[in-house]
Design a protein that fits this description.
The complex is a heterodimer of chains A (about 425) and B (about 150). Chain A is an all-alpha fold and about 425 residues long. Chain A has 15 helices and no strands. Chain A has a single domain, classed as Cytochrome C Oxidase, Chain A, CATH 1.20.210. In chain A, helix 7 crosses helix 12. Chain A starts with 14 loop residues before the first helix and ends with a helix. The chains are: A mainly alpha (about 425), B mainly alpha (about 150). Chains A and B meet through helix 3, helix 7, helix 12 and helix 13 of A and helix 1, helix 3 and helix 4 of B.
């Protein structure tokens, strides 16, 4: 056992640091929606259509990555008692670096411009890479006691592998590096979606689902499956780069299927089903499960089915945007409540979280994002006609969340002044 | 985890369960059941706080020399929870169900993050630094059984 980690509670980053990573997320989601609505729809819903590739990176890098990194800055000290080194200096750069990387890649994809890939790759390697190094250092000091801390200990490595594989892809596209494009691409996607996104969400869900929705806690024996359950087949996949084939793809889908079942069980067994954000977790778990089943069956399904588009929507929107929307709707009011409690004089009653973010307003946002998810899944029926409404609906859902969170912050500023 | 720590975690779960029952009763506007569960939840929580503040935290502080570390934060959060319980009591008496539901939501989430810190950081530290933790906590009967 290490020395007592008494600094854990004092070194938790200030709310400003966390808000800087979390609050831009819905607005980047809105940008993704507008990009779909107004961008060049040619080639949709093919996975290699410039707009598809751009959307994936705006969502994954611009919207989701800053939230996940911001959450890690908070979770390391709070759950594991280990602050991330240099948080104060790194955190303000997280959102700009992620947006810069996504912007460069969108420029590269939509403009077929190698400079965009070079710009995106450089920002990702330096900016995101610096954060990854800090997370690796912090992870090394974490003593794993449950699913969340076990994930915290190792998660930065998955992001590191994803960034390195992404940088290799950028090198192939910009400089024509002689790497096996298909293998590098598949591994980049698999490490990003499975090794990083699914594992981190599972680790965070193991804490936040019981915390906010009173779901049953993950069994200790099952929690030991993380992150190895997903990472072992992914590590097998890396051997493909050395010319050693293995059945890593179906193994990965099977592992994701198991994780999705656990998530679905937790969501369905939650005691606080009356919370307005609870349906988002159910649909998120269902999305991961559907994605895993589709991935497993891809080889036997008709070749003209838009499997890749559905996988993208199920994993990025259903599996990530929905739970992140649910968490933002809880975490931001909670952090504001905590901060108000520390700032306001003892005799002043701090308003309840539901007073800061009324459930009736949040319910509208939840319905919007669920309809957007459904519309995005149906887009392949008539891509040219459905891109506009699906994109606008998704943009509206994220703008409304962004607006609600700004409303919470404005209440905070207003109350803090009193 | 030692048996003593397991018992403390079990108390957390029992308190959670009582609060969930209370929330359900409030949603159904069932004042009588709500008052019963509120009383049980309050008794259970206050007994648990007392056990920690009078026995566990001093033992930890004495073993580690950390007077202004995690225990100080936990004590402060106990005060906040006492305040929230007091607010809930007033709202229950006033039969202001909407405000009570909102206050219970905050109380519940605040408790959960508090428990996560205790179970993830403080309790493992107690187990590592307090000799014979089981004997220390054995004589107490602060369980919050229903």
């Amino acid at each position: 056992m290490n020395a007592p980690r008494n600094l854990a509670f004092h070194l938790a980053p200030s709310p400003g640091v966390i808000f800087g990573c979390l609050l831009p997320a819905p607005w980047l989601g809105m940008v993704a929606g507008l990009l779909l609505a107004l961008g060049p729809a040619e080639g949709l819903p093919h996975r290699f259509a410039p707009l598809s590739l751009s959307l994936v990176h705006v969502l994954a890098l611009g919207m989701l990555l800053p939230v996940m990194l911001g959450a890690l800055f908070q979770l390391f000290p709070v759950l594991a008692g280990v602050p991330v080194p240099a948080t104060r200096w790194l955190a303000p750069w997280v959102a700009p670096c992620c947006v810069g990387t996504a912007g460069g890649l969108v420029w590269g994809f939509l403009g077929s411009n190698p400079t965009g890939f070079i710009l995106g790759g450089t920002i990702a390697t330096i900016g995101v890479g610096s954060v990854v190094i800090a997370l690796v250092v912090a992870g090394w000091q974490v003593i794993p006691t449950n699913a969340s801390t076990r994930v915290l200990r190792w998660i930065a490595w998955a992001l590191l592998v994803t960034v390195l594989l992404g940088a290799a892809l950028a090198g192939v596209l910009a400089y024509g590096w002689g790497l096996p494009l298909r293998s590098v691409l598949d591994l980049h996607v698999a490490w990003g979606a499975g090794g990083w996104l699914a594992v981190l969400l599972a680790g965070v869900a193991a804490t936040v689902l019981p915390m906010f929705w009173q779901a049953p806690k993950l069994d200790a024996r099952l929690s030991r499956l993380l992150p190895g359950l997903i990472w072992l087949p992914l590590a097998l996949g890396l051997l493909e780069l050395a010319g050693l084939p293995s059945p890593w793809r179906p193994l990965c889908w099977l592992a994701l299927c198991l994780l999705a079942c656990l998530l679905l069980y937790a969501a369905l067994e939650a005691k606080r089903k009356h919370d307005v954000a609870w349906p988002l977790w159910c649909v998120a778990a269902l999305s991961w499960w559907l994605a895993a089943v589709l991935g497993l069956l891809e080889g036997v399904l008709p070749a003209d089915w838009p499997i890749a588009w559905w996988l993208g929507v199920l994993i990025l929107v259903g599996g990530a945007v929905l739970p992140i929307n649910a968490m933002l709707g809880k975490i931001i009011p909670f952090l504001v409540w905590l901060h108000l409690r520390r700032q306001l004089p003892a005799h002043v009653r701090v308003p309840a979280m539901q007073t800061l973010l009324p459930p009736a307003l949040q319910w509208i946002q939840v319905m919007l994002v669920l309809f957007a998810w459904l519309c995005l899944l149906m887009l392949p029926i008539a891509p040219a006609r459905l891109a506009l409404p699906a994109g606008l609906l998704f943009a509206a859902s994220q703008a409304s969340l962004g607006g609600l969170l700004l409303y919470v912050l404005s209440r905070y500023v207003q109350l803090a002044k009193t | 985890m030692s048996d003593a720590i397991t018992r403390l975690i079990y108390q957390h779960h029992e308190c959670d369960d009582l609060l969930a029952r209370l929330e359900a009763a409030v949603q159904q506007r069932d004042l009588c059941t709500g008052q019963r569960y509120f009383h049980e939840a309050e008794q259970a929580m206050l007994a648990h706080f007392e056990l920690e503040e009078t026995i566990l935290f001093p033992a930890f502080e004495s073993a580690t020399g950390l007077l202004h570390g995690p225990t100080e934060v936990m004590r402060d959060e106990h005060y906040a929870m006492r305040d929230l319980l007091e607010n809930c009591r007033s709202l229950l008496l006033a039969e202001d169900y909407a405000a009570l539901q909102a206050e219970l939501d905050t109380l519940f989430i605040f408790i959960q993050q508090h428990n996560a810190k205790e179970e993830g950081v403080l309790y493992p530290m107690c187990r590592a630094h307090i000799g014979d933790l089981g004997a220390l906590l054995a004589h107490t009967h602060a369980s919050c059984t229903t």
